[in-house]
Amino acid sequence: MRVLALFFGGGAGGDARVCLDLAEAWARMGHEVTVAARATRASETMRRRAEKAGLPMTTYRALREFLRNQRRAGARYDAAFLHVAGEVPALGSQVLPLVRSRLAAKHAGVFHGAAPLSSLGLGPWRRLLVRVAVGLLDSAAVPSRHKVGEWRELFGPDVRIRAIANPVQPIEPGEPSEARRRLGLDEDLRWLAFVGLFRAEKGALEAVRAAALLRSEGVGLALAGDGPEREPCERLASSLQAPCRFLGYLEDPSDLYRGADAFVFPSRWESFGLSLMQAAGLGLPIAASDLPIVRDELDFPGAVFRFPPGDAEAMAEALRRALRESDPASLAAMRQATLELTLPERAARRHLMALGAE
Fold first, then answer.
1. Which numeric CATH code is attached to 2-167+343-355?
2. What is the pTM for the complete model shown?
């Protein structure tokens, strides 16, 4: 089957990873896959990974121009998956051209919410346009059950949307001390890991404050990622004398997970949480904000310790418990359940089944 994975977003965040993870999984399943992404500086990251995986990839500036060029070239696909990255207000301008182009026999939408739908301020006409656009698709999916609830609350209980968990590349276990050595992390500390963008909603500043509260307990915080709040986090860590290491953006953060004693997930809001699921799939003890995705998918007492979002003191206490009270049986159960939910081939197959293509 010929599949087009069409990405409409910035190109460096978790939504881009999901697009590529699905594309690679379909290719491993024997399908002929083409990736297309909106041209940005960040989409070069997608290009490098696509090339490494042997996937053909093109970039475009205007969706209509891309579709027109594809038709002129005689391209034809059995299925087209439009990945929408936080662009719900512009959904009609993406779905309508795609469906009208007749580039594919079937069309699916995969919607990655960058913010709660309630924060978008959509008026009645915009909501109607979104409903029409979704109705034109053969399948429309969001990554979690609570996102389905958001869609139904905003667009009506009959909106055609379903939950399909995002694919997550599993991390093979490795020797923690070797992983720490490769990252240059001090062997005398117990390390907490943060992986994510440095933006306000990701909670990195609060994680730094929590690390400062644990300074006297032989605990360090290693942070992988980049973004507008990285410099404020570095300044805060310096002023609080927090034992933090800023590793920058890691295209493959596997060693950080392997070298960590626990994982911190301080987001104030998330539609899914790829880094969270990677930690859970490795069986790491987790301290996580008390969010719907955590309650729905990671209800494992003894493995996941929740705290109110934004509360650095409660986060520090949850981290203490994660380091001291984690239960091996609960960690193993969490790991197995997470892999069953998020293995890329399983997620890819669920999308094809929802489209009626498998």
1. 3.40.50.2000
2. 0.91
Domain ranges, ordered by start, for the chain: 2-167+343-355, 176-341
- The H or E element spanning position 72 is helix 63-72
User: For 58-82, what is the mean pLDDT?
Assistant: 93
Q: How many CB atoms lie within 10 A of CB 223?
A: 26
Q: What is the pLDDT of residues 200-210, one digit of tens each?
A: 999 999 999 99
**Which residues does residue 60 pair with via DSSP β-bridges, in sequence order?**
38
- List the one residue out of 280, 298, 275, 289 whose CA is nearest residue 222: 275
Q: Give the whole-angstrom CA distance, residue 210 versus residue 86.
A: 30
Instruction: Write the CATH number of the domain with boundaries 176-341.
Output: 3.40.50.2000
- The predicted model gives 347-351 an average pLDDT of 96
pLDDT in tens, 311-326: 999 999 999 999 999 9
Long-range residue pairs from 24-32, CB within 8 A, at least 24 positions apart, any chain: 24/53, 24/55, 24/344, 25/167, 25/344, 25/345, 25/347, 25/348, 26/348, 26/352, 27/53, 27/54, 27/55, 28/345, 29/345, 29/348, 29/349, 31/1, 31/2, 31/3, 32/1, 32/2, 32/3
